[in-house]
Amino acid sequence: MSIFLKRQTVKRKRRWADKLRQIERILLSMLIVFAGLAALYGMYRMVFLGSAFELERVVVEGNWKRLSPAEVAVLSGARKGDNLFWMSVSDIYDRLNAGPWVKEAAVRRRLPDTLWIYIEEHDPVAIVSSKGFYYVDADGRVVKRLEAGDDKDMPLITGIKLDESGERVDGGDGNLMGALEFLNLFEQSRFGREQGVAEVHYDELLGYSIVTRRDPIQILIGHTNLADRVKRLDRMIGAIAARQGRIQYMLADEDGRIIVRYRPT
Question: Is the pTM here over 0.90, yes or no?
Answer without folding.
Answer: no
